[in-house]
Amino acid sequence: xxxxxxxxxxxxxxxxxxxRIRPDGLPEFTHVSTRWLEICGLNRSQFMxxxxxxxxxxxxxxxxxxxxxxxxAMAQTQPQPFHWEGRLLLHDDRQIWVAISSNPRKAENGxxxxxxxxVDVTAYKRIELQLRENVQQLRLMLQHLPTAxxxxxxxxxxxxxxxxxxxxxxxxxxxxxxxxxxxWVRLVCxxxxxxxxxWTWWERALAEAIATNGRVxxxxxxxxxKDGSPRHVVMSATLVDDLLIASFEDVTESMRAQAxxxxxxARFRALFESTSEAVMLLDARHFxxxxxxxxRLFGIADRETFCATHFADLSPxxxxxxxxxxxxxxxxxxxxxxxxxxxxxxxxxxxxxxVEIPCEVVLSALELEGERLLLATVRDHTERWRAAAERRQxxxxxxxxxxxxxxxxFRVDRSGLIHEFHSSSMRQLYLPPESFLGKRVAExxxxxxxxIVMAAIEEAATRGCHRGGIYSLPxxxxxxxxxxxxxxxxxxxxxxxxxxALVHDITRQKRSEEELRLSEQTFRTLVEDANDIIYTLNLxxxxxxxxxxxxxxxxxxxxxxxxxxxxxxxxxEDLQRCxxxxxxxxxxxxxxxxxxxxxRHQDGHWRWHVTNxxxxxxxxxxxxxxxxxxxxxxxxxxxxxYIKHLAHHDALTDxxxxxxxxxxxxxxxxxxxxxxxxVALMFIDLDRFKPINDNHGHDIGDLVLKCxxxxxxxxxxxxxxxxxxxxxxxxxxxxxxxxxxxxxxxxDQIVCALREPVCIGNLQLxxxxxxxxxxxxxxxRDSITLARRADQAMYQxxxxxxxxIRLAETIT
Length: 812
What we know:
Blueprint: H1 3-9, E1 15-21, E2 27-32, H2 34-40, H3 44-49, H4 53-56, H5 60-74, E3 82-89, E4 95-106, E5 112-120, H6 122-143, E6 148-153, E7 160-163, H7 165-171, H8 175-178, H9 184-188, H10 192-212, E8 215-224, E9 230-240, E10 243-250, H11 252-274, E11 278-282, E12 287-290, H12 292-298, H13 303-307, H14 325-339, E13 341-349, E14 356-368, E15 371-380, H15 382-404, E16 408-413, E17 418-422, H16 441-444, H17 447-463, E18 465-475, E19 478-489, E20 498-505, H18 507-529, E21 533-538, E22 543-546, H19 550-554, H20 572-588, E23 592-600, E24 606-617, E25 623-632, H21 634-648, H22 658-675, E26 678-686, H23 690-696, H24 698-715, E27 721-726, E28 729-737, H25 740-755, E29 758-760, E30 763-765, E31 769-776, H26 783-799, E32 805-807
Helix pairs in contact: 23-24, 24-25
């Protein structure tokens, strides 16, 4: 090395050296650092005088090994790096540990130069020796632990490095048999299914532990002892550097005991759950457990919710005796704890409703795991209480019915002997009680009434019951009528059969029936003689009654429409108004009038009727339908229609007059504007019509005008319109025209039609006409403008020689 290099190496905390091999084979140091001399306990002058001191300081026990290792490294054809670790024995008898490393290199002259370092490792060796001693102590401690312990390397195959005596006891394998075994998990789990599941879990748990430098949590594993017996162990493991330390606790017996306990508990739970009665476990403060019957009884979804429920939530605030439920419950609990058991009646309530549940509760005290608890059995007595309540209610109802019943009640035997009676009023009795009790019917009632009653008793005694026997008795307040209902008590057809007879006073009913008969007779006489149709409808709009004069007015039998709706006779166009009329009456419950509508006659034509109607109510005020009167107004409607027609049509030709024509023209213009169409207006004036009037008279002239009107209508479409506005002037409206040429074509047809001779008797009269045409929107956008422009065009046709067609001029 260069001197500068050696100078730099002098500053290092390790000793450095360089040596060469002399021709005689002995090593010769060419340089040593000061630190090297300090480690060897030598000074430079001593060492330069005798380099053999470098070998002399090596501990006698380690010297030969170092020389042999050095020679072996140097004797190679290709010298190899040299490493040695050993002790030095210094002049003051101190021993130190050093580590020497040397690397060969060839010099330019071919010599092999060895460059090396020496480090004092005494402190590290002391720690290593202490660790070895600690490991040995740890092995002794692990060997005698009561828990099975296994140490394995953290390599893919995880070979076993150590196992203790407890491991041999649990698994059956000695230290010698288990040491060095790879994949030890497969050894202790020989069954393929268990082995696969355990190995999968182990690899995942180990990988997670390695990643977090932590522990493998406790896991219960099924294993097999060397002798083939199955066992269970709880395994946990800790990672220490590259070692795995696993511990195993044999839980085979405890698991067997747990399994037996689980089976016993399952049998108890099955018995606990199978009982139909509610059973629960509790202490003095809260619920601990309950079976399904308990949950059903109280309307609670699960045990957790039940156990979190307070006693007060399952009982009303007070029991029927008036004592607060919590106070009384505590008294019963203390009694059961003191005396061993307690039985009492209790009213519970469901958690999901206000329904109260009458129950019988039995509390039994028991010791469980050193704790004083109570077992409660709750029997639902709802049905028993309900039956008792129903019996009480039935008796109360019977008593109330007997008190409130307006009928007379008698208990009689088959011979007619009266044993018992009941009456809400003594005024109902024909005789005072002392005059008929213990006597027979024939001795008490008039002969005719007695015969009727005895016949009814005999029928009831024979057949079991009788209904409908009616008889009358002379009472102080007038004649009274009674109806019998008799039922046999016990089996009929026995001589001793007794009967219960109810005697209902129907005097008022008989009088009402007579009054109703007279009223109906009067009403029927009025209805049958009326000129209008009288009818009734139910709430669905169906006929319930129609007066007989329906035959004379509309030709139908009233029975044809009974049960049918108004749609069966009302014109379809008027049906909605009639239904609205009916709904208005039903909603307001007030009289409605003035509805005009059409109804079908039997011969097929339609008649106009006007109706007034009033609501009908049941005796309790409930709306039941309506009563209506319908009057025929067909003649009036025909007159109104005729008058309306005269107001809008020409009396001579029956064509629309000016008013109606211009109304239709306005409608056509609105339609054209909305749909972007053309409308044509023609102004037609007959040529030389005045001479016809003058020469032949107005009667002939009128006939000519009628003929012209018919010819104009025959030429036009149904959607077009022709009107007479006076004298011999006519207007024609053509809707939805496409071109002026099409309009002129229609005008040509009119001219041709009017040129045909008009034959009246022996007369043959010839006509012609002048026509002016105005188009919308070309010549105007309103009816007045179009009429004026068509009139102007007509006069132009007149001036041009008559019998002409002229289109209005376009104004620019």
